[in-house]
From TrEMBL:
GO terms for biological process: protoporphyrinogen IX biosynthetic process. GO terms for molecular function: uroporphyrinogen-III synthase activity. Residues 34-288 form the Tetrapyrrole biosynthesis uroporphyrinogen III synthase domain. This is Tetrapyrrole biosynthesis uroporphyrinogen III synthase domain-containing protein. It comes from Nicotiana attenuata. It comes from the Eukaryota.
Amino acid sequence: MQHPPLFPFPIPSPENSKRNCVIAFTTPQNYAGRLSELIQLKGWTPLWCPTLIVESTQQTISSIHHYLNFTSNEPYSLLEDFSALAFTSRTGITAFSEALSINSAPPLTPNGEILTIAGLGKDAELLDQYFIGKMCENPERIRILVPPIATPSGLVDALGLGQGRKVLCPVPLVIGLDEPPVVPKFLEDLAKRDWIPVRLDAYETRWAGAKCAVEVVTRSEEECGFDAIVFTSTGEVEGLLKSLKEFGLDWEMVRRRCPRMVVAAHGPVTAAGAESLGVGIDVVSSNFGSFDGIVDALSHKWKSLENQES
């Protein structure tokens, strides 16, 4: 279901300073509020153009429950067979938590091996005491791991050698788009470190449809009506390109219409994915554990440009 823009602000006049510039961003709804607030704190205007719909479904919740419910033959869940649970997104944690909340009992018994639960950056804030309590009555069985580098490869490094142990990986089921290489590479890297990765399609990522590009197309027709566009995943980039194609446009045409537009990527993984799709990136956040990094990177970019012009 396509959601209407959350922030229909007017286009700033050309004489306005960069403090009032318009920042288009393609983030799904579950991240939109956080990024929009940070954009507004900079004195800028957020323009939400979601290219993806990311949500759990009855099917994906059922897939999670497969690992949480006690088996018919044994008094324990399949999750007991795993040494680690590795989340690469906030949505994965949310979907898992949703399944836990409607589960009849914690999937882990009070006694047993420690389960390492890993999350990236600010996403790991959701791995709180409530989450741990729903996982097991004995919190000593749970170890929370937050890699110092908030990327899937950083997560692999933090987990270390698997020594033949199993790791459950709740990841998205991509529908209507080509799956970006991030998740397959993550699973491959785990296997190279002697883990046995088990993929769990914990939620769906779907193309939001052609309408998601309406604002971008409309505001770029004459004089570009936005100053920057922010991508927070490779899937968002592909979603926008697919939508532009529905209007008979490609990325180079948008670039020509908006020569002053700054294209920003939330972290090197997103930047690399965008570049592989032919979308050049001007700004990459170095602090990508949260969205603060990308808005700070944009601010630094414009300050540098202003100093060059003065």
